[in-house]
Amino acid sequence: MSDVVSSKRVIPDRLGSKTSRLLASWEVLLFGVAVLIFVFNSFASPYFLNAWNLSDATFNFTEKAMIAFAMALLVIAGEIDLSVAAIIALASTAMGAAAQAGIGTPGLVAIGIGTGLFCGAFNGLLVAGLKLPSIVVTIGTMSLFRGISYIVLGDQAYGKYPASFAYFGQGYVAWVFSFEFLLFLVFAAAFGILLHATNFGRQVYVIGNNEFAARFSGIPVERVKFILFLLTGVMAGVASVCLTSRLGSTRPSIAQGWELEVVTMVVLGGVSILGGAGTIAGVVIAAFVMGLVTFGLGLLNVPGIVMSIFVGLLLIITIAIPIIARRIKEMS
Amino acid sequence: MNRLLKNREILLTVIIALMIAGFSTRAQGFAAPGNLANIFNDTSILIILALGQMTVILTKSIDLSVAANLAFTGMAVAMTNAAYPDLPLALLIVMAIGIGAFLGAINGYLVWALRIPPIVVTLGTLTIYRGMAFVLSGGGWVNAHQMGPTFLNVPRLPVLGLPILSWIAILIVLGAWFVLTRLPFGRAAYASGGNPTAAIYAGIDIGWTKFIAFVVSGALAGLSGYLWVSRYAVAYVDIAAGFELDTVAACVIGGISIAGGIGSVGGAVLGALFLGVIKNALPVIGISPFAQMAISGIVIVLAVVFNARAERKAGRIILRDRGAKEVSA
Q1: Ramachandran region, residue B31 (left: φ > 0; alpha: ψ -120 to 50; beta: rest)
Q2: What are the C-alpha distances in Å from A296 to residues A31, A58, A61, A66, A316?
Q3: Model pTM?
Q4: Domain boundaries in chain B?
Q5: CB B297 to CB A132 under 8 A?
Q6: Residue B91 has pLDDT above 50, yes or no
Q7: Which one-letter DSSP state was computed for residue A176?
Q8: Which of residues 155-214 of A touch B (CB under 8 A)?
Q9: Domain spanning B2-20+34-317: which CATH class is it, in words?
Q10: Do A5 and B320 touch (CB under 8 A)?
């Protein structure tokens, strides 16, 4: 992967008009899909159009989406972190152990996020510091982090969390708007600004497009990557706080397989898995699409594992469609 | 001496031998030939899958769907056997290999024709194939009493002191060695992963090579599907969940470069045996089996660090990377 010196995209001489570009953009297409799914679900199930049910549906994606924001930046920079779900498990286990020891809610949150930070730093050190390929490193740390949870917990579970800890995953800010949903919006805005309106965000794009050129432009490639792994770890920690608080218990198998769903969300959001392209807006819409699909199917009594077929198909089809479309365009 | 240390196969052999010696001081009979044969038999399926995975990784791809493929194929043959006990075993095995190869071909086609990155394709098909196993079985189990005696017993039959399962693994190891080092496909696989640009200039069709690699990996996963179901005498949706990571781990430990083009059959086999010895030793020396996951994690990370040191390239790329552009565009 690191041998690729040339830029990955060809920039046309003339761009289309602003409206035609907007209409052809991935985000608009995805938004259309979201609306279609919404309309379809409203007809398919009488229980769908209900403020509380829709509010419940947001829990399907808020925690995953929080990680997906950070993961989007990481993927745009040309790296990936498959250990996020394992970080959730380890952070949750650490919080569980602390809760058994009688530590209060603020301490638990600090421990959860701190564990995420530590795991992110470990990944970052291996990838940015030792210049190792992130995909294998994080497959390894995924096994390591969840493995530690298994050593600590085995077939046991932690369950005694303080009552006030339940707020993060079960509390509502106002009417049907949950605390998690608020957190989701805040992080969406924060990551949107970080990626699209700061120098740091520019650097992320440059690294993903052409790491070679980035180095020549004086961008501290390793430092940026390290920070991105830290961010991903922290967001996994935050997600762990929310999930643990929502479930009220910790098993070592918590959030199993989430890394795939988070990556699906990121890729579905139009982030190029090869790096260098993507927006936070896309990831936000992708989160809604996945949330609506799984929730709608749930209302129709479709089992979870069959839903995963739809998620997998969604991932492949949404990537294949633009490629096929471009092929057809080139032929004519 | 330095060169000996750099040879991954010799190094791994020494480490495995030391491990076995170490474990046998704690547990009498761990190093006995019978037990070693058991460990080999136990690791056979991992060896077969690791060889398929290795073929894919050589071409600069990755196949994360092998375990899901195994689960679907295993379920399919187990259900067929339960429904039609009279079908000959050979037909079922052909069917397993065929279904596996077909599922692998879907992966390969998406990578080859649509040029979707392999990790995305196989992440998608991983969930799809396992979901299909659920749809196929309706969430049910196929238990030992529903399977025919031939279906269950053939892989266990001892031939010349080793069960047939072990012999199948040995045959596939020899076959993989022959294909990867003696046939044009092997050359093409190494070339298209090691230096795609040069491979294109040499007239190698990278896309086709990747496609074939995925078909091979799928076919081996399909065969493993039958072997797994027969060995554990049960088929359900979640069999071999997460096993794809073990196959990647075996490859990485065996010195197969995740960037493609580097690695040997011997390395992959030893990588798989390394994991197999650890897995079998943990209960024997009184470490909780729950520790196995963390230990594999540490081993993978260490192996990656080690590989990176060994692979550090001397010299520069002189040709411009036109091939890579074509591959990743």
Answers
A1: alpha
A2: 17, 12, 13, 21, 20
A3: 0.85
A4: 2-20+34-317
A5: no
A6: yes
A7: T
A8: 155
A9: mainly alpha
A10: yes
